[in-house]
Amino acid sequence: MRGGEPSEEQYRQPMLDLGDGDSVGTPNGSAADDSDVADSGVSVESTVHSGNGYSGNDYTDYAASMLQRLGTSKFRARFVLTDKDRAYARAKGRATIDRHAHEMLAKRVGPAQPYKDGKQTPWRGHPVFTAQHATATCCRGCIEKWHHIPKGRVLTDDEIDRLAAVVMAWIDRDLTRHPDVPNAAGRS
Known about the structure:
The protein is mainly α. Helix content is 48%, strand content 2%. It has a two-stranded antiparallel ribbon with strand order 1-2.
């Protein structure tokens, strides 16, 4: 586990304290199918945690500074996960969502000339898609503007790791800010 990130157990346990007064809840409802990611043909080994990184391959400081910068954008700051996406993230667990983030970034924005660049990331349907728009990792133009990674070349494994860390920090923050409250609909 990287410093400051919720553990796999914190994604799955009801109302666990993260040490900063916030909590993370448990799954609520059925999870969506993740076969689209599994069938993407992207090798997990080629995209996940390659090392060679920011602050000893711990991107916590980079992710925190980026979330602070992105919070100054009215457009980026308005994104939140849907209840369905939160339930999906909690049901799948952090490790699976992190793997999805690496795979989606490598496939959708990793190439030098991504297919349909600027329009390749859906607005909804998976927590990573929403997080990509919130963290400016949705297209190469946004990545260049916000993360200072030039267009026109393949993203390195290190860059994918760094961008995935920002995506995961944003998802972690959203889940922390919106804890799962079992049977909330039945309360008066």
